[in-house]
Amino acid sequence: MAELALLLLALGCGGGAGGGDTATSGDGGAADGGGTTDSGDTGADPAESDEALFRRAIAGEVEAGTALSTIADRGGLPVASTEGYLFGCTCGAGDWALAGDFDGWKPLAMQHDGDLWWLEVPVPDPDGSLYKFVQGGSDYQADPLARRYGYDDNGEYSLVRATAAHLERWLDVGGDGLDGRSLRVWLPDGGAFTHALYAQDGQNLFDPDAPWGGWQLQSSLPPELLVVGVDNTAARMDEYTHVTDEIDGAFYGGEADAYADLLTTIIRPKMEAAYGTALVNGVMGSSLGGLVSAHTVYRHPKDWDMAISLSGTMGWGSIGLNNVTEPELWAAAGHREVALYIDSGGGGSSCQDADGDGVPDDDPDSSDNYCENAWFRDLMLASGYVMDVDLWHWWEPGATHDEQAWADRVWRPLEIFASL
Asked: Which residues pair with 416 in a beta bridge?
């Protein structure tokens, strides 16, 4: 368990604690975006069109950051207008321009009104059209507030519009007493899907610059699957754990109920309002993200069809304390009409319970939560789950506890989920 504790503290398995979008820029650059100011305080009217709100920001009638963040949470940027498309940012100091494949990537000088840099240009074929903001004539940066985006050899790019499979973003989604966080959505070709999967540690799922190269999940997804990647925040250790535990004299955890409620009652309805409902819905994560995925389905079994946990931290609660673990919660609940996938890499020799707390997590040779997940499997079999019917367990011997290892085997639970 000492190795696990060090991994949880030093690595976090979440690609950083900030929880914000990973589209970045130089100092004072485009990644400053529009902020997340409450539009109710600065003049934005939720009933007016995005174009009208944008034009009022140009005129200085509404604070620019508020207008852009409000639009980003509604129809998204850029805004379709009478003359083409309105592009904008609160980019800060500098000399800013707009470039895209619609003009051969030649920078077009943006206009500057107050805090708002903007430009209205015609885009004859917006579907699949790429663009970026340009600072100083040569520093090309993706629009951090663009609804649609993707990655190529030059990093992140922004999309004017898209019908082919692509990524979309939503910013500052919070509630139930938890801070806002970004959502990164993989939308299948044509926006058509039958299954929706809500995945934790969203920063690591699609971005090739994430730790260990990230999951690059888009390369493993079945065509009918929508994925909502939910960014973690600085409170990851608390939000992803259902009880308090002790690591090296410090106490963490206990907010997973609130996080499960956020995912189930706020984030999922918001995504269904934007994209439609799926026939099958699941939750997925790794490490602590796997733990909270299992806990979300445990807490809301009638709302979810499957929990997927890769290398889940199923011994949480017993690392330094003697609180109830997630496998014990599931065992006490008995068999329910939900599917469960659990796995690990690593391995172990004895999977012993040396301290007598009922959790076999004291094997000095165990790694990647191997013993705890094998124990979880056995508890579920004893509760009436049937292997390869509503319970799946996989062991990848020697696999490490990182995004590359999860990326290498995530195809397996995705295929299972898509078959439900």
From this structure: none
Structural element, H or E, at residue 412: helix 411-419
- Give yes or no: residues 202 and 271 share one domain: yes
Task: Identify the bridge partners of residue 72 per DSSP, sorted by sequence position.
Answer: none
Instruction: Give, in order, the Cα–Cα distances in Å from 85 to each of 4, 129, 234.
Output: 50, 12, 36
Q: How far apart are CA 403 and CA 315, in angstroms?
A: 20
The lowest-confidence range among 45-49, 78-82, 152-156 is: 45-49
Place of tokens 């993707």: 150
What does the pLDDT look like over 271-318, one tens digit per residue? Answer: 999 999 999 999 999 999 999 999 999 999 999 999 999 999 999 999
Instruction: Report the distance separating Cα 371 and Cα 11, nearest Å.
Output: 21
Whether residues 299 and 326 fall in one domain = yes
Place of tokens 């011997």: 397
> Minimal CA–CA distance to 311: which of 345, 352, 282, 350?
345
Cis peptide before 222 (omega within 30 of 0): no
Domain contains 23: no
* Residue 172 shares a structural domain with residue 131: no
pTM listed for this prediction: 0.91
Q: Are residues 407 and 261 in the same domain?
A: yes
Q: Is pLDDT larger for residue 12 or for residue 28?
A: 12
Tell me the pLDDT band of 418, cut-offs 50, 70 and 90.
very high
Q: How far apart are CA 358 and CA 51, in angstroms?
A: 61
User: Which one-letter DSSP state was computed for residue 213?
Assistant: G
Which amino acid does the sequence have at 58? I
- CATH number for the domain that contains residue 264: 3.40.50.1820
The answer to whether 169 and 146 have CB atoms below 8 angstroms apart is yes
Domain assignment of residue 324, yes or no: yes
Domain hosting residue 77, numbered range:
30-143
Mark whether 249 and 274 lie in a shared domain. yes
Instruction: Note whether residue 327 is domain-resident.
Output: yes
Let me know if 270 is exposed, middle or buried by CB neighbors in 10 A (0-12, 13-18, 19+): middle
Q: How confident is the model at residue 16 (pLDDT cuts 50, 70, 90)?
A: very low
Torsion of CA 294, 296, 302, 307, to 10 degrees: -30
Same domain, 129 and 189: no
Domain end marker among 87, 112, 143: 143
